[in-house]
Automatic annotation (TrEMBL):
Residues 54-64 have a biased composition (Basic residues). Residues 1-10, 22-53 have a biased composition (Basic and acidic residues). Residues 426-547 form the NlpC/P60 domain. The lineage of its organism: Bacteria, Bacillati, Bacillota, Clostridia, Eubacteriales. Transmembrane segments: none annotated. The keyword Hydrolase applies. Keywords: Hydrolase, Protease, Thiol protease. Signal peptide: none annotated. GO terms for molecular function: cysteine-type peptidase activity. InterPro entries: NLP_P60_dom, Papain-like_cys_pep_sf, Peptidase_C40. This is C40 family peptidase.
Length: 547
């Protein structure tokens, strides 16, 4: 025999006891050949898979075949678990895990091969493949046992060890398959029994079954309705939250008090103006010093986007105050003459007219109206938020109960009116009315001209008519009047104009005439109004018809 060196191949370690080395080259060679065979099997398996992919998909197996497949899966799971358990105990078993995976590949390949060659005996092919797998696994462990136990180097010992492993795997596989099949059979039996009992119950109690199904349908419907109601409720809560003041009561009341303090200081300045200034004559043209607290708090909340504190808005209060109240002083100097008695050199007295400057002070205070300020200092988004707060008064009508908006929005809402159906036969008017009524209840916002910012009177009329076929852009009340032709016999859909509703030259207000002495206009809020009231009659100017 040829002598071989005891040095193991690179990457391998020779095992032994008491420093004695054993020859392991033949075993390593066998493992290497086994690995090559498994790799070759994997290549054949891949080719088999490609061929199978081109074939028609197999029919869905019946219940018995499905149970057998489940049992096979359980067997594989058991074998995987055993090998992984050994792998945790000894790192050397990783090689065995490779052999196991290769054996599985060979098993799957063998199954496909048998199915294609002998389709009438699939159970025999599966049994043969399983046997091959068990044999390969047992063979590997037998070789590993021979390496780790040199005293068992005899062929008989290795054969007995492999035989014992093979029988152990077969026994475990049979037990697992039986348990799985039994569980599946029990499940099928229970399902069949339930179906039989349900069918028998329906036959015995047909009316009761229908009632039960009806109740179930009602429950499902109620659940669906409740789900919809919850969605609507969530939306409603979100809308309420968005339109509610977020600042603390102390901060809001403090801001109102601070603004009132600025107004009180302005009033004291005017009251003492003649004592604190040195002019010969004074003329005062003063607007009333007043504001609505809801307008103030809504503006601050919109500008500061929700929650704020008094200290954070003191600068804003000063800015708003400066925009609302415009105090001007105009001093006119006149040269006047007065008679002065003088004495000449001879001691005679005589009178002369001596010129002098006479100072006349004209003091004007304009209250621009705080509700007119937002459009000049807010972005469209802020203006939209301001309108939202005003439409609900921040959901805090108790905060400033003396506000005039409480009466207009809550306790004394505008009158309701129903336009006669016969007027809606005019399609143009019906379209105008449908669009205009979308915005009932929207607050009056000076300069507003869209639903997002709310409206003023002319912005409301311009928007509605531009949505209904006209295209004249954004016009003021006077501009709308100039566009219309005058009519003494108004009909629904015409415009009605007013003067003197506030201090401005020309037409000051406009509304949509809806017939029978009523109009729909952007008051505060947008609402119907009876033109026969004394107020509107005193300011009525003309009716007009858009071309």
């Amino acid at each position: 025999m040829e002598n071989r060196q005891n040095k193991p191949p690179e990457g391998e370690v020779a095992s032994g006891h008491g420093g004695q080395k054993f020859h392991t080259d033949s075993e390593q060679a066998k493992l290497h050949k086994s690995k090559l065979r498994m790799e070759s099997r994997e290549e054949r398996l891949n080719k088999a898979r490609e061929r199978l992919a081109k074939q028609k998909p197999p029919k869905k197996p019946g219940p018995i075949k499905r149970i057998a497949r489940i049992a096979g899966h359980e067997t594989h799971a058991f074998l995987h678990g055993k090998v992984y358990q050994e792998e945790r105990d000894n790192v050397g078993v990783e090689g065995g895990h490779f052999v196991e995976r290769s054996g599985e590949a060979a098993l799957h390949y063998g199954r496909h091969k048998v199915r294609r060659a002998i389709r009438e005996h699939p159970s025999k092919a599966a049994a043969r493949a399983e046997s091959r797998y068990i044999k390969a696994t047992a063979d590997y462990h037998s070789r590993k046992f021979a390496q780790e136990q040199p005293e068992a180097q005899s062929a008989a010992a290795r054969l007995w060890h492999r035989h014992k492993l093979k029988r152990e795997y077969q026994r475990k596989a049979r037990e697992t398959a039986k348990q799985t099949a039994k569980a599946a059979e029990q499940t099928v039996s229970a399902t069949e029994r339930f179906v039989r009992e349900a069918a028998a119950f329906v036959k015995r109690h047909p009316v009761g079954t229908l009632l039960a199904l009806g109740c179930l349908l009602v429950v499902l419907t109620l659940q669906s309705c409740m789900s919809s109601m919850v969605s609507v409720g969530n939306s409603t809560l979100a809308a309420i939250a968005a339109s509610t003041y977020k600042a603390e009561d102390a901060d809001m009341l403090g801001a109102e008090a601070a603004y009132c303090a600025l107004e009180d200081e302005l009033q004291r300045c005017l009251d003492t103006y003649t004592r604190t200034h040195d002019y010969d004559e004074y003329h005062f043209d003063l607007d009333t010093i007043e504001h609505d607290p809801y307008v103030l708090i809504s503006m601050i909340s919109a500008l500061h986007e929700g929650a704020w504190t008094l200290d954070e808005v003191r600068g804003t209060l000063q800015d708003l105050f400066g925009r609302q109240y415009i105090l001007t002083e105009d001093v006119v100097v006149e040269v006047r003459y007065r008679t002065v008695t003088r004495t000449d050199s001879e001691g005679n007295n005589y009178d002369v007219e001596v010129p002098y400057n006479y100072y006349i002070c004209y003091v004007t205070l304009e209250n621009f109206n705080l509700s007119h300020v937002p459009v000049y200092m807010m972005s469209e988004e802020q203006l939209s938020m301001y309108a939202l707060y005003m439409s609900t008064l921040g959901n805090r009508p108790d905060l400033f109960p003396s506000s005039g908006y409480i009466g207009k929005y809550i306790t004394n809402r505008p009158p309701e009116h129903e336009v006669p159906e016969s007027y809606l036969d005019d399609e143009t008017f019906a379209t105008i009315l449908k669009e205009a009524e979308k915005y009932l209840g929207f607050p009056y916002v000076w300069g507003g001209s869209s639903p997002s910012t709310s409206f003023d009177c002319s912005g409301f009329v311009s928007y509605v008519y531009n949505q209904c076929g006209w295209d004249f852009g954004r016009l003021g009340a006077q501009g709308l009047y100039n566009t219309c032709s005058r009519t003494s016999s108004p009909r629904p859909g015409d415009l009605v104009f007013f003067v003197g509703t506030y201090d401005t030259a020309g037409v000051s207000h406009v509304g949509i005439y809806v017939g029978d002495g009523w109009m729909l206009h952007c008051g505060d809020p947008i609402s119907y109004a009876n033109l026969n009231s004394s107020y509107w009659q005193s300011h009525l100017y003309a009716y007009g018809r858009l071309p």
